[in-house]
Amino acid sequence: MRPSDRDRVAEMTSDIWDGHDYMAHVFDDWVADATAAFQAVEVDGVVVGLHRLRPYAPGLVWYEGLRVATSHQRQGIARAMLDSAIAEAREQGFAELRLATYNEVASHLFESAGFKPLLDIRWWRAPRVEGGEPANMPDAVEAEKLWKMAASSPGFEMYNGISADLNGARNLEAAELGRLASRGMLRVAPGGRALGGLRRPWSDNVAVAFLAGRGAALRDLLFALRYEADADAAEHVTVALPRGHPAADDMRATGYDFANAEDTAFIYGLKLKPATNV
Q: 106: left (phi > 0), else alpha (psi -120 to 50), else beta?
């Protein structure tokens, strides 16, 4: 993909999500990122398809940005691009290729290529609120000690061992809690009885990729996140929960509701060969 392709990409994605496709906002950064492969398919010198492969954790590579121009859909281009990405990831020795989608049609494509569903996510949202203290931010050593509590909390197994982060779903483990804490991206309730892992937000909000805890401690954390949104002048808090997660009652009790009752998102994974030097 070249910087000169910007206008063409904007044109071919203008009808996606009613004109609100994120591609126009990330194009320049993606072109400039030498650590990822941002690739295009051309027909007669015109870009008609694009996608990106991005290594993001040891052994893991993220697949994103698959787009095919309306004029060239249903011609096998998307499948050919996906197959090419899988082959490239395998050749580079990655252990697993992961991706996220909101699109049911795309889900069928990924499943036909061997991807397995890892997470079915619902989005919860609450507006910011004044009057309280934000949650604690532990250091990395403290964070890793919270793993036992997190792993045994109700519904945590529904995350299927991965974070509900559509920027790149990492494995959930003690080391991941430490990594997040070292980046200021972990929030903990008083006493360490509930925690939330943050992700990079897509808009003006506090974005939570996973929760752990129960009862009063979890509710205290959920309120503290709303206080943090107010302190940061963010509009709201968004929380990703697996469908059917038992924290739903705690969410409602602390002022959260579905961002959109129809919204859902899926994270898929495809096992490749064992990772080697990535």
A: alpha
Q: Which residue(s) pair with 197 in the sheet?
A: 186, 210
Domain-located, residue 164: yes
Are 161 and 172 a contacting pair, CB within 8 Å?
A: yes
Task: State whether the Cα torsion 131-254-229-221 is positive or negative.
Answer: positive
Both 68 and 164 in one domain: the answer is no
pTM above 0.70, yes or no: yes
* Distant-in-sequence, close-in-space partners of 141: CB < 8 Å, separation ≥ 6: 178
Could you report the per-residue pLDDT of 242-260, keeping only the tens digit for each? 999 999 999 999 999 987 7
**pLDDT value at position 118?**
96
CATH number of the domain residue 207 falls in: 3.40.630.30
pLDDT under 70 in the chain at which residues? 261-262, 274-278
Verify that 40 and 131 share a domain, yes or no.
no
User: 169 and 34 in one domain?
Assistant: no
> Is 107 among the domain residues?
no
% of the chain with per-residue pLDDT over 70: 97
Question: Strand (E) positions, the chain?
Answer: 37-43, 46-57, 60-68, 96-101, 116-127, 186-188, 194-198, 205-213, 236-242, 257-258, 265-271
Q: What is the pLDDT of residue 277?
A: 47
Predicted local distance difference test score (pLDDT) of residue 274: 56
- How many independent structural domains does the chain possess? 2
Q: Of 94, 111, 137, which residue constitutes the final position of a domain?
A: 94
The answer on 240 and 148 residing in a single domain is: yes
SS3 34: coil
